[in-house]
Amino acid sequence: MTDTAPLAATPACARLAEALQDLKSRTGLSLTALAARTAYSKSSWARYLNGRQLAPRDAVEALCTMAGQPPGRLVALWELAELEWSGRHRTSGAPPPPDQPASGAAPADRPAHRWNTRRRRWALAAAACAVTVAAATWLTTSRGPHIQDTAGRTAPSAAPAAECRAQECTGQDPETMGCAAPGQAQRRGPPYRTRTGARLVIVLSTRCHAAWALAWNTRTGDAFKLSAPGGAVEQVKVADTLDAEDPLFTPMIGPGDLTGLRACFTPAAGKQECIHG
Questions:
Q1: Comparing 228 with 160, which gets the higher pLDDT?
Q2: Residue 28 CB: number of other CB atoms within 10 A?
Q3: Which helix or strand (DSSP H or E) is residue 263 part of?
Q4: Are residues 37 and 66 in contact, defined by beta-carbon separation less than 8 angstroms?
Q5: Residue 151 lies in a domain
Q6: Are 277 and 168 in the same domain?
Q7: Key word Glycoprotein present in the record (predicted)?
Q8: Which ranges in 38-134 belong to alpha helices (H)?
Q9: Half-sphere exposure (CA, 13 Å, Cβ side) for 255?
């Protein structure tokens, strides 16, 4: 079993969740409004606010901006919380993350569940930062997109640097690598509505020069993928109803040329449908 810091050892995580709740109250915005003004979904904001998931730094800065609060104190608190949940404050080395694919594994061999929902990708954060603060109030689900066009919306004035660019981003999570920062992620055209009612869109990060496919309103057994000229492919399968509750995105593809991208959706029972971006 992975060694994660117990709740009692993560005071910064609890303080960060409480501070984010206070900022939200000061903005007067609902979870839906927060999602509409940032690159993070309603269900993600619910998890950040109730402490079930560590908020990305970009989300903290965006909320500070909307509340008219200088981000310095909250960013410092976020850094402490990030150290706590990651275990980097310990003297012993942190264990390797679970479910890492073997070096050189093909995209089809990568365990799909690693990319299915943020809830699963942030299991360590949830274990370290879970705090019992108004859980019944904030626990909600959303079927809207995680990454939204952010032109004209509030964004932090100084977003942290992205952790990858172009080919370095291939196979990486766009949010944890800082590629989905507000104002830095754009859809390549309107969402495509599939025959089953699912939505599919290609998202491009100008910050990281990388792209990923995003889908929502999916069902168990559905699958979708993003491919680029030259053979790079990243894909996701909806494993269960929990996966279907949240929007899903593929790992990134970061080719030198982002033209010619192709996203395809395959329902559990039906024919494949594709879009180009």
A1: 228
A2: 9
A3: strand 262-266
A4: yes
A5: no
A6: yes
A7: no
A8: 42-50, 57-67, 72-86, 118-121, 123-129
A9: 16
Q: 64 burial class (0-12, 13-18, 19+ CB within 10 angstroms)?
A: buried
Residue 195 within any structural domain of the chain = yes
What number of other Cβ atoms are within 10 A of residue 177's Cβ?
A: 21
- Three-state DSSP state, 138: helix
Q: Does some domain include residue 44?
A: yes
Tokens of 212: 């990923």
Instruction: Give the Cα separation of 15 and 131 in Å (integer).
Output: 10
Question: Which amino acid is present at 36?
Answer: A
What is the bridge-based pairing of β-strands 210-216 and 199-205?
antiparallel
- How far is CA 277 from each of CA 10, 180, 230, 258, rounded to the nearest angstrom? 43, 18, 15, 8
More confidently predicted of 79 and 201: 201
Q: Do 61 and 38 meet the contact criterion of CB atoms below 8 Å apart?
A: no
* Cross-strand bridge partners of residue 215: 200, 248
Tell me the pLDDT of the chain averaged across its residues. Answer: 72
Residues recorded for the chain: 277
- Whether residue 99 is contained in a domain is answered as no
Query: Rounded CA gap, 201 and 277, in Å?
Result: 9
Average pLDDT over residues 52-59: 88
Enclosing H/E stretch for 20: helix 11-27
Q: What average pLDDT does range 29-35 have in this prediction?
A: 86
The CB density around residue 256, as the number of other CB atoms within 10 Å, is 10
Tell me, what DSSP letter sits at residue 7? G
CATH number at residue 216: 2.60.40
